[in-house]
Design goal:
This protein is of the alpha/beta class. It contains twelve helices and 20 strands. The protein has helices spanning 19-26, 35-48, 64-72, 82-90, 107-116, 126-136, 177-186, 208-228, 254-272, 285-288, 321-325, 415-420, and strands at 13-14, 17-18, 30-34, 53-57, 76-79, 98-100, 120-123, 142-149, 171-172, 191-197, 234-236, 278-281, 292-303, 308-312, 332-334, 342-348, 357-365, 373-377, 398-402, 405-410. The chain starts with 12 loop residues before the first strand and ends in a 5-residue tail after the last helix. The structure holds ligand LLP.
């Protein structure tokens, strides 16, 4: 039913539903996704890249509703496990619009991808070539791309940079590993190499690394043309488009990116006398990150000599990003209007370690107290998809809001779920 509640003073409404009402209805912690915002972001990408294939990177967050929304908005899917594949296909997503990634694909990943008929498989290491060819079998056919490493450093944190040679993904262009692997792929009649793939990293806020990646990959395409007479028809530039997590920060504008990539690609291909390849992009964070907000209740407020700690009912099990990458969020008080002066506080979680910090040194109203509701905006990407079972607290539910209605998409992990996974003593 549509929300009829009068918003309380200080309340924040998303998708026409007061957030405090969602917290009352589904409990906390809860993740709230604004369906229209997800869809709008898909449309922005489709408009910015009208000739390109836009794949949503499912690792940012996947559930059945997301699969439906992506299908309806005309996006494809970048998946990296049998789990993501299975969820998408059993929800009705066309497998040919999916691309399978992974630096270490399990036998189950490959078997599932081939059984379901995934569109393309991205080869990430030399040892995968023979394994995939054998799995496809003589007389079989599978489209593949090869993930190349352009030697470009970009991304919001060292742990999410994948464009440099000294990391685990892909095959280096400068060391010749990419060229070597491509020659071996060309020897496998059941593998059809359609193009190159290159994912630089994540939370990139400038178009420059993408421009450099276009030059580098087209350079490789030109050499492959000379050496093998090969004309590759696709270029997948990966994802990594940065977003703003706090007021005042800037993300990467998809329209500006599309514009620069188009110009650069046309010039590089003209210089190399190659046809312009069909472009593929794989945004994850930029589709779903800003459309999500995490809601928590404050359970305790504690003053120490150094700080004021505001402890909430979630933490690093539903959002490991501050602990992993030092990411900073801007939590806010929801559902109550406060006229108290702002105070500097540190918002922490409920987990059994001192590093369980959600937001260090942020401003909240000085009268913040147990029972208050806090919202952490920009929580749609890489929160729940990276959630853990730490301390057996159970993963939070996901609700969607649209046109004044809220509905549950993913239920809370219950004590029953936790108990029934154990099958032996
Ligand atoms: N394509 C490939 C091959 C990827 O590995 C990724 C992300 C993407 C696309 C999407 O990147 P996005 O547009 O979402 O930045 N857990 C980290 C982010 C790891 C990204 C891993 N790969 C975080 O919370 O910041």
């Amino acid at each position: 039913p549509a929300s009829t509640a009068e918003p309380r003073p200080g309340d924040l409404t998303v998708g026409g539903v007061p957030l405090a009402e969602i917290a009352d209805r589904f409990g906390t912690p809860v993740y709230v996704l604004d369906e229209n915002e997800v869809r709008d972001r898909c449309r922005t990408y489709r408009h910015a890249f009208p000739d390109a294939e836009v794949l949503y990177a499912a690792k940012a967050f996947l559930c059945r509703a997301m699969v439906h929304w992506m299908a309806e908005e005309g996006l494809g899917l970048d998946v990296c496990s049998a789990g993501e594949l299975e969820l998408a296909v059993t929800t009705g997503f066309p497998p040919e619009r999916m691309v399978l990634h992974g630096n270490a694909k399990s036998p189950q990943d490959l078997e599932t991808a081939l059984r379901l008929g995934v569109g393309r498989i991205v080869i990430d290491s030399p040892s995968e070539i023979a394994r995939l060819a054998a799995a496809v079998g003589p007389g079989g056919h599978q489209k593949v791309m090869v993930r190349v490493v352009p030697g470009i450093s970009a991304g919001g944190h060292e742990k999410i940079r994948t464009g440099t040679d000294d990391q685990k993904f892909g095959l280096s262009i400068s060391d010749g590993y990419a060229q070597h692997a491509i020659a071996r792929i060309l020897d496998q009649p059941q593998l059809e190499l359609t193009g190159l793939h290159c994912h630089l990293g994540s939370q990139i806020t400038s178009v420059k690394p993408y421009v450099a990646a276009v030059r580098r990959t087209v350079g490789l395409m030109a050499r492959l043309h000379e050496q093998h007479g090969l004309v590759l028809s696709e270029l997948d530039l990966g994802g990594g488009h940065g977003i703003a997590y706090r007021p005042g920060e800037e993300g990467l504008d998809p329209t500006a990116l599309a514009h620069r990539v188009r110009i650069e690609l046309a010039e590089a291909c003209a210089a190399a006398q190659l046809p312009v390849p069909h472009v593929i992009i794989e945004p994850g964070r930029a589709i779903v990150g800003p459309a999500g907000i995490a809601l928590y209740h404050v359970l305790a407020v504690k003053h120490t000599g150094e700080r004021v700690f505001v402890a909430v009912d979630g933490g690093m099990s539903d959002n490991p990003r501050p602990a992993l990458y030092g990411v900073r969020y801007a939590p806010r008080l929801i559902g109550r209007h406060s006229i108290a002066d702002p105070a500097r506080v540190t918002v922490v979680g409920r987990h059994c370690e001192a590093g369980d910090i959600l937001a260090a040194d942020v401003e909240l109203p000085g009268d913040v107290r147990p029972g208050d509701l806090l919202g952490v905006p920009v929580a749609g990407a890489y929160h729940l998809s990276m959630a853990s079972g730490y301390n057996l607290v159970g993963r939070p539910p996901v609700a969607a809001v649209r046109d004044g209605c809220a509905r549950l998409l993913v239920r809370r992990e219950s004590l029953d779920d936790i108990r029934t996974r154990d099958v032996g003593v």
